[in-house]
Design brief:
The complex is a heterodimer of chains A (323) and B (149).
Chain A lengths: L20 H12 L13 H4 L4 H32 L3 H28 L2 H13 L1 H15 L3 H15 L1 H12 L4 H30 L3 H30 L5 H18 L15 H7 L33
Chain B lengths: L2 H10 L1 E3 L6 H9 L3 E3 L15 E5 L13 H7 L2 H6 E8 L9 H10 L3 E6 L4 H23 L1
Parallel strand pairs in B: 1-2, 1-3, 3-4, 4-5
The chains are: A mainly alpha (323), B alpha/beta (149).
């Protein structure tokens, strides 16, 4: 078994001497993506919020408390344990950014609550989150890995949280947005979704670097553990999804979204996707709410063409590319 | 045009860039088509291609046009000779970046007047690989036909 070399002492961080230039690339990406919930005009959603039924309001608040729990775990436990395993001071610094942004995400849900919701309803939902067995089970499955002494599995759990577990929750604001409801809230959630993509990518990249140094037997063992954990989380996630979405009839489409994102989580770890395309065909309106250009067809190969237009060719210089 | 030239054209097929994370590299490996990788280090000289090709590139950044196209790709395309041999572009990305999904591909397509042929996420699913492999082969066949007729 490969033991990871942890940073044994603290030296002043020198960003002009990099061991891994991916650290600086991701640091720059994360810092340029920095945002706060105050920049999103959530109060513009008040009118729209009032068009939701009591049941829809309760569902939305519950979904957001579930997301708050995941962000809290990542901020106060996940990122700090990854910091302990960091192998460069720059990697450690990237995790400090991730830890803080997860706090911003958790804070954002409370901004949504204070802008749109009745205090009593929110208190009820927090109580619900503390008592809901499937929500608590997913939290425990992740925390168990974070508390383990296996640095590789800590990263696996972290990528599954960032790239898979959030999506049963993210589905709902994308759904509302596709129905022209809570569109400012959806804008805020999209900022969170963007951040989580960079987090999952980076932690997955560091995982792959470490895994490559392990023996073939150890690599196989970690891979087996990873798929095992994914399936365990998936089973729980299906139950969580049913408990939330059955009453509004969205469970089956949410499950497709889970499959689609589970595949991406596995890919972030460098593993092959698990779910075939026959079960990842998420409703196109949800995909369009997630990525507005996703509905433009860029599959030129299927003969459906692309949106490019012929114009006059332009000379290319570095400056032109705004690089 | 001679058949030999057509064959030679198809032999080149793809030029691609992939960072250390290797997602695009992995996609290319799965395609199993002949491909030339652009150098990872900015200090290394950018290659010159001699035959038509399709460019495959990841998208950088967190959702802004600025910096979306990797610098190594820009340097390669700043060579007019290389640029004129490009027939299309395929972009990697992540739908989590919203409108900026595969943005590098759209920027290059618009700037260089070539079609954006396809987009895929991370290192692509088996479906993506199958579609692109078939699509690229047919694309070169059509190109060859349009040159011979």
């Amino acid at each position: 078994m490969t033991t990871m070399q942890r940073l044994s002492r603290v030296d002043a961080i020198n960003w002009n001497r990099l061991q891994d230039d991916k650290d600086l690339e991701v640091w720059n990406r994360l810092t340029s993506n920095f945002w706060l919930p105050e920049k999103v005009p959530l109060s513009n959603d008040i009118q729209s919020w009032n068009t939701l039924t009591q049941q829809e309001k309760q569902l939305t608040i519950r979904v957001f408390t579930g997301l708050t729990l995941l962000d809290t775990i990542q901020s106060s436990v996940g990122a700090p344990v990854l910091m302990e395993d960091a192998r460069t001071p720059h990697e450690e610094a990237v995790y400090t950014n991730i830890a803080f942004m997860e706090s911003v995400h958790a804070r954002s849900y409370s901004s949504i609550f204070s802008t749109l919701c009745a205090t009593r309803d929110v208190d009820d939902a927090f109580r619900w989150s503390e008592e809901n067995p499937t929500l608590q089970a997913k939290s425990e499955l992740i925390l168990e890995r974070y508390r383990s002494d296996d640095p590789l599995m800590r990263k696996v759990a972290s990528v599954f949280l960032e790239s898979f577990l959030f999506y049963s929750g993210f589905y709902l604001p994308m759904y509302w947005s596709s129905h022209a409801k809570l569109t400012n809230t959806a804008d805020l959630i999209r900022l969170i979704i963007r951040d989580e993509a960079v987090h999952g990518y980076y932690i997955g990249y560091k995982f792959q670097q470490a895994l490559a140094e392990a023996t073939p037997e150890r690599q196989q063992e970690v891979k087996d553990y990873a798929y095992e954990l994914l399936l365990e989380l998936y089973d729980n996630e299906v139950r969580y999804t049913e408990s939330l979405y059955d009453e509004v009839g969205l469970t089956e489409d949410v499950k497709k979204f889970l499959h689609y994102n589970a595949n991406k989580a596995l890919m972030n770890l460098g593993f092959e996707p698990l779910f075939p395309s026959s079960v990842t065909d998420v409703d196109p309106t949800i995909m369009a709410a997630l990525s507005p250009s996703a509905d433009e067809n860029h599959d030129f190969f299927s003969g459906s063409g692309s949106s490019y237009v012929i114009g006059k060719a332009v000379a290319t210089e570095d400056d032109d590319w705004a690089f | 045009m001679q058949t030999a030239d057509v064959e030679a054209e198809r032999a080149v097929s793809l030029v691609y860039f992939s960072t250390k994370s290797g997602n695009t590299h992995r996609f290319i490996q799965k395609l199993g088509l002949s491909a030339q990788r652009l150098p990872l280090n900015r200090e290394d000289p950018t290659p010159r291609v001699e035959q038509p090709y399709i460019l495959v590139t990841p998208t950088y950044g967190g959702g802004y046009a600025e910096g979306a196209v990797p610098g190594q790709v820009i340097r390669f395309l700043n060579d007019e000779h290389n640029r004129h041999l490009m027939r299309g572009v395929i972009a990697a990305g992540n739908t989590n970046f919203g409108e900026a999904y595969g943005l590098a591909g759209r920027i290059i397509a618009q700037k260089c007047q070539v079609p954006l042929l396809y987009r895929f996420e991370l290192f692509g699913t088996d479906d993506d690989v199958a579609k692109v492999r078939k699509g690229v082969e047919e694309f070169w066949k059509r190109q060859a036909q349009s040159l011979t007729t």
